[in-house]
Each structure stands twice: as structure tokens, then as C-alpha cells.
Amino acid sequence: MVRDRGVAFLPPFREAVLSLRAHSAKLVARPAGRLQGRVCAPGDKSISHRALMFGALALGETTVRGLLDGEDVLATAAALRALGAEITHVRDGGPLSGDLWRIRGFGVGGGREPADVLELGNSGTSARLLAGILASHPFTSIMTGDASLRRRPMHRVIEPLTRMGGRFEGREGGRLPLAIVGTDEMVPIEYRLPVASAQVKSAILLAGLNTAGETTVVEPEPTRDHTERMLRHFGAEVRVVLAPGELGDGGKRITVVGWPELLGRDIVVPGDPSSAAFAVVAAAIRPGSDVTIENVGVNPLRAGLYQTLRDMGADIAFENEREVGGEPVADLHVKGGVLKGVEVPPERAPSMIDEYPILAIAAACAKGTTRMQGLAELRAKESDRLASVSAGLFANGVKHEMGLADLVVHGTGAPPAGGGLVATHLDHRIAMSFLVLGLAAREPVAIDDGSPIETSFPGFAQLMNGLGARIEAA
Ligand code: S3P
């Protein structure tokens, strides 16, 4: 499958895409023995996007260590450069937390009109969060992306940002390419999120920065709070009030006060729990494995998978718990065994929304039935993840049922058949999940296109092979 990468790459992004094309290929994962070793998770994708964006909206210099050097984050960097931020990558291979990135920001409301279309590749987080920044600047900009991103719903950010004063012209449903006619005279709103989405929350809060007065997002179900944490770190006034009576357990009102002076800061990005998940599940389903993944963010609003795996009987210890860059971090020590099927509470979904594909693989190897509900949002990800997972399970002989918003997987406790070829549909998490299935199945599992892995986890196959996996070009 040839990836449709859209048009008009900005120069730094073109470089990333060309290097990626070299890797664009069918991959196969062969059955492996037990996995062993210590590895470091790549930088957190959500936090990396935000570090670049807030650095661009701050005055003075921001430095970032541990930034994810993946294609999605590079797309955000390219877009912010087009708005006037100076972003440099110092390849010093710094100790512990990786290379240094330096950002000289343009300040809240200080971006300039981009001279060309902003090409965001596969990255929904770039598109939705940047929409908040662009709508609150008095110029016109156009965003586009690859075939996956051009299919994804944008109405969810267009609606609140239009209420604040932005104007949008996109394809049907507001899909990309999307023109944004921004304004520096936005009006503050109070907005209740109709879907549990940290991207929508963040887009509104970002627009609220260049808006006089107080902008409030009402969040009935808690979602990842990296934006709130990092905005405070940069000096913004952000008030979070728990409102259980009004909103139910975990409901919050989040208010940002407009026109703060954000000042450059030093940031260390922890490892990504959503990326660590692949190595954790691989080790958990290979009996006899003993793997430690160092430096993994374990923010409770991201750690739902780890709770679920423990419910399934996985042996996962959080070691060396500490704080990195204002986020809780631990080394995850995983020992392999046989998991058991469980019922996953639907209210846990926002804290593990990106992890259902890899959980489905754990469920396929577990003994018994695993029920996952409340998954409607999976249909709006890089691919329709419910359909992609179901097709991949089917191709590899795993008994399951898929509903409109739920998935039921029947494991036997014995290795699944495997032997299938899985279509990844430009979706990195589908690609990595089914490669993990290949390690534990009776026959090898192939994926049609490994290149999307570069969006979030460059070096995935090498890292997994270093632990004892057998992933190679097919
Ligand atoms: C993200 C939020 C989630 C997640 C995505 C990253 C973020 O999306 O799936 O990978 O960085 O805010 P939604 O906000 O659509 O749930």
C-alpha cells in the first residue's frame, strides 16, 4: 500500500517524510520465545505536541528534552515554524532524556500568517490543537493532511471555535483541507464537551489564551490533563474545579484566564504510556518474559490499560516512581504469564482510549472472554479502529464479536492461529498491535504497511527485536 501523504510539504517535514519512505514496507512478526531486557519508552506524543505549542506561544526560550522525534510531532514543529516560531533540534544525544530542542516563541497572539498550506501528515492532535491557535489569530490559514487525517471529523473543534468567533471552510463535516479565518477578537465561552476529548478541550483552552476574559470547558468525563498542567507551568492562570454533583464522578470545570504572559520554560517529556503499551503487552503474553520499560508516564488519566492488564492477572510493577516535568513517571517491570478475560468498565475508556487495539491482542491471548464497551470514539481515530481491529482478529483466527461501540474477544489461553495479513489503514497503533500478535501466535502475522509506525514510535521494530521479538521486512 502506498501512503497518500498529501501535498506541499514544508522543508523540515519533507526531510522526515523522505526518510520515512525508505521504511514504508510490509512487515512480518514471527513467533518469539520469552522477551527479556530493559528499554526506554519514546517521548510522550501528547506532551511533545504541547511542549512545542506552548513554547511557541511563550516569550523567550523554551528548552525541551525527551521530545518524541516522530513524524506527528515534526508536523507540529513545521507548522509552528511557519507561524514564526524558531525551533531548533540540537542533536547532542543528551544523557537520560535525549536530544535538546530549543524554541523561541512568538508569544500569545503573536504568530504570523503562514505563507503556505500547513501539512499535518497523519496527526489529529496537530490539526485539532492548532485549530485553536489559528482561529485566535487575525489571518487566514489552511490545514491539510494525509488520507487518514482528511477523513477525520473536525466539526468537534469547529463548533466551539465558531462560537468564539472563528470562521471555517472545509469539506463535508468540516474535514480537511480546512481554511480557518481567524480573529484576535474572540469572545470567551463556557462549553460543555459533547464527547470526552482532550483534543477538543485543548483547542478551546488554546483559543482562550488570546481571548479577553475567562474561557471555561466543562468536562463531564475526565480526559488527559497535560494541557492544564503545562499551561500552569508556563505561567497561565488555569482553574480546575471538580463538579461531581453537577457532572458525576470526575467531572470538571476548567477555566483559563485570557491574555496571560507565557514565559519560556525548561521541559522534560516523559516516556509515552501509549507506546510502552506494546512492549508491556508483548512481555505480559509471553510466559517467562521479564522486561522493564523505563521512564513511562503513569498519569492516572492515561494509565487505564495498566489497571486493566492487572485485572487480567498481568504481573506489572511500577518501580522507581517519581515526577518528571510535572508528570508522574515509573519504570514498568513486566513478567509474562497467562492472562484471563475481563469486563473492562466503559468509564475507563478515556484513560486508555488509544490502547484498545493492543488490549484486543492481550484479550486474544488470554483465557476467557474480554468485553470492551463504550468504544464509539475508536471509529474516529487514525482509522476506524473497531473495524480495523476486527478485520485483523478475523484474519488471524481470533473469535470475537464487534458491535457499533463494543468489542468482545474470546481467548482460549492458547496461542491464536495467526498467519494473516493485516491492513493497517495508515494507523500506527493497528500496525504495532498486530506485530505484537505475531510474537505470540502459532504462525507469523504480517502487516501491509509498517510506515505509519514512524508517526509515534520510530525504532519500534529494533526496540522490540532487542527484547527478543522477530519483526522483519516481509
Ligand atoms: C490526544 C487525545 C486523544 C488521543 C490522541 C491524543 C491528545 O484524542 O486519542 O491520540 O493529545 O490530546 P481525543 O481527544 O480525540 O480523545
Explain what the structure shows.
This protein has 474 residues and is of the alpha/beta class. The chain has two domains: 228 residues, Alpha-beta prism (UDP-n-acetylglucosamine1-carboxyvinyl-transferase, Chain), CATH 3.65.10.10; 213 residues, Enolpyruvate transferase domain (UDP-n-acetylglucosamine1-carboxyvinyl-transferase, Chain), CATH 3.65.10. The protein has 14 helices and 24 strands. The protein has a four-stranded mixed beta sheet with strand order 22-23-1-24. A four-stranded mixed beta sheet has the order 2-15-17-16, covered by helices on one side. A four-stranded mixed beta sheet has the order 4-5-3-14, with helices on one face. Helix 1 runs antiparallel to helix 3, helix 9 runs parallel beside helix 13 and helix 11 packs parallel to helix 12. The structure holds shikimate-3-phosphate. Catalyzes the transfer of the enolpyruvyl moiety of phosphoenolpyruvate (PEP) to the 5-hydroxyl of shikimate-3-phosphate (S3P) to produce enolpyruvyl shikimate-3-phosphate and inorganic phosphate.
Quick structural overview:
With 474 residues, the protein is an alpha/beta fold. Helix content is 30%, strand content 25%.
List descriptors.
474 residues, 2 domains, 4-stranded mixed beta sheet, 14 helices, globular, binds shikimate-3-phosphate
Please specify the SSE layout and strand pairing.
Blueprint (H helix, E strand, L loop, with lengths): L10 H11 L5 E4 L5 E5 L4 H13 L3 E5 L5 H12 L3 E5 L9 E5 L13 E2 L4 H12 L4 E5 L10 H10 L2 E5 L3 E7 L8 E3 L5 H12 L4 E6 L6 H8 L4 E5 L1 H4 L4 E6 L8 E3 L4 H13 L4 E8 L6 H8 L3 E10 L2 E9 L7 E2 L11 H10 L1 E6 L12 H11 L4 E3 L4 E6 L8 E2 L5 H13 L4 E3 L12 H7 L3 E4 L1
Parallel strand pairs: 2-15, 3-14, 6-7, 10-11, 18-19, 22-23
Antiparallel strand pairs: 1-23, 1-24, 3-5, 4-5, 7-9, 8-9, 11-13, 12-13, 15-17, 16-17, 19-21, 20-21
Helix pairs in contact: 1-3, 2-3, 2-7, 3-4, 4-5, 4-6, 5-6, 9-11, 9-13, 11-12, 11-13
Bound molecules: shikimate-3-phosphate.
The site of shikimate-3-phosphate (S3P) has 10 residues, from helix 6.
